[in-house]
Amino acid sequence: xxxxxxxxxxxxxxxxxxxxxxxxxxxxxxxxxxxxxxxxxxxxxxxxxxxxxxxxxxxxxxxxxxxxxxxxxxxxxxxxxxxxxxxxxxxxxxxxxxxxxxxxxxxxxxxxxxxxxxxxxxxxxxxxxxxxxxxxxxxxxxxxxxxxxxxxxxxxxxxxxxxxxxxxxxxxxxxxxxxxxxxxxxxxxxxxxxxxxxxxxxxxxxxxxxxxxxxxxxxxxxxxxxxxxxxxxxxxxxxxxxxxxxxxxxxxxxxxxxxxxxxxxxxxxxxxxxxxxxxxxxxxxxxx
Length: 288
What we know:
Elements: E1 24-32, E2 38-42, E3 47-61, E4 64-69, E5 72-76, E6 82-86, E7 92-100, H1 108-112, E8 117-120, H2 125-137, H3 142-167, H4 171-189, H5 197-204, H6 208-219, H7 223-241, H8 246-252, H9 258-269, H10 273-277, E9 280-281
Parallel strand pairs: 1-9
Antiparallel strand pairs: 1-7, 2-6, 3-4, 3-5, 3-6, 3-7, 5-8
């Protein structure tokens, strides 16, 4: 397989306009893989982020295979051989972002490390930024392009900080983190219900204020902000997988009032629910 050289100038105009300085983002979308979909062994001239929104897939990079599931984020560098396969009886919905820096020797691998599996970011700020990036990418105008580039650089910075934090955690901190993961999973499993603080206290054996403090420390947000995020993600999944109306989706994720749901979605993601739906790709193979 011949290698494709990195770009040595700003990328040509894509469907929505041009990026005039790095980072150059060449793809940013939400992809719902068809049944038995796969990408055979290949190399790209760009970096790629692949974030699992729902389901699972097998991703092989330079001979190392990663089974990725909900919340998992992986990446590969230019000219690395990789392939992707869906898993039988498992759906696969992912955020896919391709980017590069042209002639600029930006130290991506110094920031992210050599391990292609970056971690699980379900409910994390990084998940929100990835969603915001692909939403802005679909919109015309330089303001949206600038938002995309800014979000990408923030994501790289957040990932680098998260990596350093994980490397310095003590054993007691790991035990508290385990309890916070338990709380997070409970919220994720009961997102369409009216969850109360006392339920989380009984689950973890910790006080309300301590839960809020440690949950924020672990995931960057409060438990009930995380509940909102889960509801947003579930709403997006229903938009992808069903023909439900907006009011039906709002009710399914725990909102009896569709207007409250709409205001919440736009406040958190900076775009309306209908605009988000326009970013969904369901009927084609990725041409990356």
